Amino acid sequence: MKHFLLAALAPAALAQTFYGCYTEGNGARALSGSSLVDYITMTVAVCEAHCTGLGYTLWGVEYSGECYCDNALSLGSFPSFPTDCGMACSGDPLTICGGPNRLSLYGSSATPPTVTPNPHPPVTTFQPEGCWTELPGPRALAGTGAYSGSAMTTTGCGEYCLNSGFTWFGTEYGSECYCANALDVASTMALATDCAMACSGAAGEICGGPNRVSVYQWV
Length: 219
Description:
Layout: H1 2-9, E1 17-23, E2 34-37, H2 44-53, E3 58-62, E4 66-70, E5 88-89, E6 92-96, E7 102-107, E8 126-133, E9 144-147, H3 154-163, E10 168-172, E11 176-180, E12 198-199, E13 202-206, E14 212-218
Antiparallel strand pairs: 1-7, 2-4, 3-4, 3-7, 5-6, 8-14, 9-11, 10-11, 10-14, 12-13
C-alpha cells in the first residue's frame, strides 16, 4: 500500500528532451499556456507531469520553484548561456531548475522548438572593431548585458546580442557580454594589449579586460 502511495506522490519522468537554458520572451512569458509555482517541492518531473497532463508539449522550470507550459515559445525567447540556469530545484537539490528570468527548457520532441528572435537587420557575420574603454557612468555598449560565468565565448555573446535585437556586442573581463546598436561616443579606442583576458568558455579567444571591451559589429 505504501509503495503505490509513494509512486503517486513522486511523478516519474516521461519521454523528454532537455533543450537547454532559454531566456524569457519579449514582454511576455516564454511559455504562457499554464503555470505552477511551488518553492518547496518543485522538480522537473513535477513540472512535466503538470504540463503534459494538460496536453502541452513544452515545459520549463525557472527560479527554483516555478513551472511553465505551452506548445510554442513566445517572441524573443531563445537559447541563453548554460550558466544562466544555475538554481537548484526546490524539491531536488541535485537538479537545475532555471534561474532568474531563465528557463531550463524541456519538451516531448527530439527537435528543439522554433525560436523567433527579437527583430534585427539582416546580417550574416560579425567583424572586430577593436578594444575600447568602458565609461564611468553608462556602459560603452548600453543596450543589455549578460554574465556567463564559465561559458563565455565571442560567438556566444554575438548570438545572444543578435537574438536580443542588437547588432553591436562586446566581451569584457573574461566572462561578461554587452550589447547595443551603437558604441557610446564617449568610449575611446584603447591599446589592443589592454584587451588580453581569455574568454572563460574558450581559452584561445580574447574577451576584453578590466574596464576594456573587445567590440564587434554584425554586418
